[in-house]
Structure prediction request, 318 residues.
Amino acid sequence: MSSPDPSTHLQDAIDLAVENVKTGRGGPFAALVVQDGTVIAQGTNRVTTASDPTAHAEIVAIRQACDAQDDFRLDGCTLHATCEPCPMCLGAIYWARLDQVYYAATREDAAAAGFDDDHIYEELCAPPPDRRVPMTQHLRDAAQRPFEAWLDYEDRVEY
Amino acid sequence: MSSPDPSTHLQDAIDLAVENVKTGRGGPFAALVVQDGTVIAQGTNRVTTASDPTAHAEIVAIRQACDAQDDFRLDGCTLHATCEPCPMCLGAIYWARLDQVYYAATREDAAAAGFDDDHIYEELCAPPPDRRVPMTQHLRDAAQRPFEAWLDYEDRVEY
Prediction:
């Protein structure tokens, strides 16, 4: 169910993001996961203090919400983020099966403050050979073995 | 520096992925982070057992490598993944500043085994209003506050 008033949660996230910066915990971003109007998790950017390039606010909040629910799915939940999610976080949003995303600042606002993830969107949407990070493919035949093991494994938990 | 023989590391990753499935730890994926020919971290998919939708092999390996190096950057390292990374993992690869990616199975192979992330690539490359997960924007003015706090914060660590 969607939150009735996304602005209240977004305002809370904005306050959290300001606090995150002022206390030296990381970058100017925060995110909340909301279920039926209740905040079930909150995350702030911890990239530099956790030495973790994946510790974006949205990822931190999603991981915390899943941990609290003991579930890798967040169907029925919404994400409230201070800024438009980067491609990594957007991917996580899809994998977590969140229902809806509310965001405040745009990617252009982020770029103006020195956080340019527009180039990552461009890279992802480019064919692999045209990307800046070289990606090369080897051993395709051997790489079928894990998939065969998966399809043979009767107790597999699909996700 | 690139690894001299990516196939050796890819083969090791493939073996790890098979073991990950057979021991019930998660999906059929593994990844290694290599620096100067030495494996500094390895990850396997733990989505279902860790209740963490972000626990893809690549993310697990990147987080572990960063933790071991106490650094949020992996310049000079390469990633060896059993399968073409999904958009979330590709985003993480850019944020971690990895030099190069070697992969074995293609996204088509993954789709044939039930792991279809092609639709996430399509969603990311679509304009936000056209995406399946609704994304709406509010409070843009208020959302400048975290960025202002960031630019005012003299001890900020950029990333």
